[in-house]
Amino acid sequence: QEAPVASQELHDLVVVANRLPVDAKTLPDGATEWVTSPGGLVTAMESVMRNVDSAAWVGWAGSPGEAPEPFRADGMDLYPVSLDATDIEKYYEGFSNGTLWPLYHDVIVDPAYHRTWWDTYVSANRRFAKAAAAVTAPGGTIWVHDYQLQLVPEMIRSERPDVRIGFFNHIPFPPVELFSQLPKRNQVLRGLLGADLVGFQRESDTLNFLASVRHLLGYQVDQRTVTVPGIGAVEPRDVIAGTFPISLDTQAVTALTDDPEIQERARQLRHDLGDPEKVVLGVDRLDYTKGIRHRLKAWGELLNDGSIDPRETVLVQVATPSRERVDAYRQLRDEVELTVGRINGDHAPIGRPAISYLHRSFNRRDMTALYMAADVVLVTALRDGMNLVAKEYVASRPDLRGVLVLSEFAGAADELRAALLVNPHDIDELKSAALRALSMPEEEQEEMMTSLRRQVLDHDVQSWAKHFLDELEAVGEPAPPSAPI
Ligand code: ADP
Ligand code: F6P
């Protein structure tokens, strides 16, 4: 079926992200199927943009080659940007996910530095910037997202000084000692400072960014305000940095948990697992930042030492395929699958797994049923911008049952202080937290969930977006409209 074409209007609010909210998948018969894109950015922003009149989203459609024509989906105009095979290799898999991703996540694996990756990062960023500038109304707002597009704010400003520009980083911003490794660090900072407002998940990310600006560029920083010096006829300008922890569409989650079909699906899932006494759940993109190896190590040891009986307790590990052509991800998949196979070989009762491992995507209804079926959720990230899975679990438990074990290295830990907080590098601590979660009395679960739910339900993604956009609006008047590029 043909997608409706995009409206011909210019838009007051344009979101730019590496990915569109939907990915194009080519079916064996050559037809195109659109599926929800992976990751927390899309989960959060898709629900924000669905509620905006005349919303526009500029991004990649997930396949190499020529971009599809602009089209409408869920009330949004989507403007696909093309990435060819070289862009995917050098901009997406290379500089974004082989350099920036590991550097910004505490060098859990070694970042790779290649000069040709940088050149393609620049040219791809320029393509996103031009596409966004071309569909934005005079005096409009462009909201740029995430580490793949850090040069876009500056590129838009040089073409469209009339628009307000916001940037939000969904992943951590590293301490200056690590950021300094980046060969093109000053260009990246100047790219970000093209925005009027630069937002981060955690307070420490904001402070890291400001410290880098001060130490590496030598710009004046007064609390949250950076003064970018003027050059020639260009006046100095102020850029504000701020902390905006992202969240979920909690109303949408509540609509799902209220649905009797999903409640039945949760019961059915437990039954399909053999009606164990306890179901423990992990949900992650298959990414080395998520601490899946640490989780499996702890789980294997608990089974080995007899602390957990696999006939009573099942671990369900959902691992969404991710960045499968990048070496570190290939290696991770091999290791995880080998370990799951070993643990199942050693411990699974006949006809049932000790670990039910699912390497694929599920729809929101199935994800919610999984959260509702889980007695414990393990979030063991070694570093994570936010981790929406932690918040999704909390939002999915109106019955106030269940225990969240949460890594202190996930951004969510700054807000979800009532969870069982762990250092995932300490395998003994991880094991005792899992056991404590499994034996937690119902009254204690209720107390924990009540406190966690207050935090999540009072700070949903709509209020996050409003807070960011209100602050952007308050930042100052842009220059008068000029001709679009
Ligand atoms: P990241 O952005 O690094 O992927 P988050 O935890 O913030 O991490 O967000 C992950 C999002 O992807 C969540 O909304 C989660 O529900 C979703 N997700 C993870 N695994 C799957 C899966 N197998 N199927 C569908 N959605 C998934
Ligand atoms: O912030 C999380 C995030 O990295 C997004 O930027 C990204 O779109 C998503 O996870 C999934 O990763 P990818 O787009 O590389 O599949």
Q: What does the radius of gyration come to? A: 23 Å
Helices, by number, come to 16
User: Which consecutive residue ranges, at least 5 long each, have pLDDT under 50?
Assistant: none
- SS content category: alpha/beta
Helix content: 40-55%
Distance between the termini: 33 Å
**What characterizes the major β-sheet?**
10 strands, mixed
Strand order of the largest sheet: 5-6-4-1-7-8-9-12-11-10
Principal-axis shape equals globular
Q: Beta-strand percentage?
A: 15-25%
**How many beta-strand segments?**
18
Which compounds are bound in this model? adenosine-5'-diphosphate, 6-O-phosphono-beta-D-fructofuranose
**Average pLDDT for all residues:** 95
Family: In the C-terminal section; belongs to the trehalose phosphatase family.
Protein name: Bifunctional alpha,alpha-trehalose-phosphate synthase (UDP-forming)/trehalose-phosphatase
Detailed description of the structure:
This protein is of the alpha/beta class and 485 residues long. It has helices spanning 40-50, 85-104, 115-134, 152-159, 176-179, 185-192, 203-217, 250-257, 260-272, 292-304, 327-347, 364-373, 388-395, 427-438, 442-458, 461-474, and strands spanning 11-19, 22-26, 32-36, 55-60, 71-73, 76-81, 136-145, 164-168, 197-200, 220-222, 225-228, 237-243, 278-285, 313-320, 355-358, 376-379, 403-407, 420-422. The strands form 3 sheets. The chain has a 10-stranded mixed sheet with strand order 5-6-4-1-7-8-9-12-11-10, sandwiched between helices. A 6-stranded parallel sheet has the order 15-14-13-16-17-18, with helices on both faces. α3 (115-134) packs across α4 and α9 packs across α12. The longest helix is centred in the last third of the chain and has 21 residues, at 327-347. Adenosine-5'-diphosphate is lined by residues 39-40, 43, 283, 285, 318, 320, 361-362, 367, 386-389, 392. Residues 39-40, 43, 283, 285, 318, 320, 361-362, 367, 386-389, 392 line the site of adenosine-5'-diphosphate. In the C-terminal section; belongs to the trehalose phosphatase family. This is Bifunctional alpha,alpha-trehalose-phosphate synthase (UDP-forming)/trehalose-phosphatase.
